[in-house]
Amino acid sequence: MAKTYAWRSLAVIALSATLTAQAWADEQHVADGSKADNKNLLHDSPLPDGHVPANVNYGFEVVGRDTLDGIANGLYTDVWAHDGYAYIGTFQEPECNRSGVFISDIRDPANPVTVGMIKSPPDTRINDVKVTEVGDRDVLIHSLEPCGLLNGNGTRQRGQSGIALWDVTNPEKPHALKQNFLDFPVHNVFPWTTASGNTYLLIVDDVALDDLKIADITKPQAPKLITTTGIDTWLATNPEVAADGQLFMGTFATPLLHDIWVNDMDPGPGENWQAVLSYWDAGFITLDINDPYNPVFLGDSTYPDPDPVNGTSPPEGNAHAAVFAGPNFDKVFAGDEDFDSLFTAVTIDGESYRASQGSNVPQIGPGADITELTEQTAYVGLACGDTLTPAADVGASIALIERGACAFTLKAQTIEAAGYSAGIVFNSAAPGNCEASVSMLVEANIPMLFVPRSSGFAILGIDGYDPNLCPDGEGANPALPAPASLGLVATLGAVFDGWGYLHTLNNTSTQITVPRGMDGETVTVDYLGEMGYYAPAEATDPALATGAGDLTMHNLEIDPTYPDRTFISWYSLGMRAVEWRPGHLHDNSKGEGVVSWNMHEVGRFIAGEEYGEAAGSNFWGVHVTEVNGEQYILGTDRNTGLWIFRWTCEDATDVLYCNAPATP
């Protein structure tokens, strides 16, 4: 097992310090990065520089394709369908080109045709699309997020925010019902209609700490915001959210709301509306929303530690999307999105400490400016323009610097002038700092890394530092040494911690017992505890950390005909179909092609060379729909547009079977 150390929030105060839009760099009041910007960057990974070969495709049959606006790198996003028409959003960066929403007539699934396009407002992108019946109208709801340049003083991004509602009763002639409803960027939405005929909408606020909003859209031309709640409220009312210590983990450490899903848990004569929220490092949170004016917190998940697939501790987090699944919705199928299969680390004596890299400095890692750097460290104090003892005289090449008193760039330039080849800034003991992470805005000609305060002490070789004492009891911790004191030899580099994968959670109100393999071993699982997982073997292979595209999963939906089955869009690993299969346990030691527990792969599609310039998948969206009484799976490829699949079972006697014997 790889043991790693990452920053964690030790007090609720650290949440506000990390998530507010103004996480200021020292003294210069230059933003270290905002929650809204970081959320946008979740999808801004470099476009894949390769793809996993389409070795074995099965289960998915390609029925039809619509290239929409043509093959274009990174353009297409989410997909939804209603009454024989598909609606496809666009990411629109970096060009921010007003691509908007494409409308495709899929009534003949073998020959889909683009019949319209709703342009986004200037400098604005449309990520999420949903269509629902509201009264006698079919209503398209889409998100709005700024994607333009920053304005003159750099405080606001050009573009529009909120959501827009369109009447698409005639999909080929959509007309606007309400534009720019709400004044904050929105990433995702989800509508539902109660038995009384009222239609409500869950909304992800990209910026606020209370980041879940609920609107009444029963009159879509005059929607009303009715409820504001979210992580800030629940930290006060439901402290169990933070009790597991998992608000801040991994490379992108934050508890932000990303995706939302709503189900009627009692689709018979009654109704019981619940939502599952994907809260990044805070995990997956469930809500009772039967009273939209007063949603009730039900529970939140905790990631297993160590990570059961990749063996890292603490786990990465990154709860991205989830759906209710299984008979009577007794499960949650939940997925992580992790574009960073490698994390920057400072390694000493075999222990790796997570780090973040500065902005405009040489980068470290596979394929970067410097692959790896191993040198002696030395503490140099604050390094704020004063003359330091030359690195050669100290006998060190990596400077350890305490945060505070001056900007990161001045620190970097100070140690560079003293002859150091790299710098590591560790956090200060100021309130809200301590174990928090910072994305440094820094310019220099040498690598600059940032670590939590406790990691700085470890790199210095100082024993006995207790991060729980910071800030108020910091005086009881060991003191820092005099400047020019040597620390330990450190390696600056990257450590593989895998890509995002699928989790299966217990969504029953009681503990349940599930098998751990076929030898009789069992595991008892609490509410929202993990009772299964699935990852393609490629997503666990360090050799594919770079050069094979994005190997993280993205979105998922259940199969309405068999709710223990889910269809997943998995970026460069294409489309996947996976079923709940108690007793299955695979570690790929026999070349199974998967790492899984109680889950079994039953379908795979990656576009092969026979698709010409569309070869090499990059699937973002997935949606299950019915056309003329037959079920189809829609997938949106970021580069090649809309794909329409039919899923069928294989021969049950084959190793790739998808048709029921309950054996591996």
What do these coordinates show?
With 664 residues, the chain is mainly β. It is 7% helix and 38% strand. It is built from seven helices and 40 strands. The longest helix has 10 residues, at 408-417. The radius of gyration is 25 Å and the shape is globular. It starts with a strand and ends in a 17-residue tail after the last strand.
Question: Which features would summarize this protein structure in a list?
Answer:
eight-stranded antiparallel β-sheet, nine-stranded mixed β-sheet
Task: Please write out the topology.
Blueprint: E1 4-5, H1 13-19, H2 35-41, E2 60-66, E3 76-82, E4 85-90, E5 101-105, E6 113-118, E7 124-125, E8 129-134, E9 137-146, E10 162-167, E11 175-181, E12 186-193, E13 199-205, E14 212-216, E15 224-229, H3 231-237, H4 240-243, E16 259-264, E17 273-278, E18 284-288, E19 296-300, E20 319-325, E21 331-336, E22 342-348, E23 351-354, E24 356-357, E25 373-379, H5 391-394, E26 398-402, H6 408-417, E27 422-426, E28 448-451, H7 453-459, E29 485-496, E30 502-506, E31 512-515, E32 522-525, E33 530-536, E34 556-559, E35 562-569, E36 575-586, E37 594-605, E38 619-627, E39 630-637, E40 641-647
Parallel strand pairs: 1-23, 25-26, 26-27, 27-28
Antiparallel strand pairs: 2-40, 3-4, 4-5, 5-6, 7-9, 8-9, 9-10, 10-11, 12-13, 13-14, 14-15, 16-17, 17-18, 18-19, 20-21, 21-30, 22-23, 22-29, 24-28, 25-29, 30-33, 31-32, 33-37, 34-35, 35-36, 36-37, 38-39, 39-40
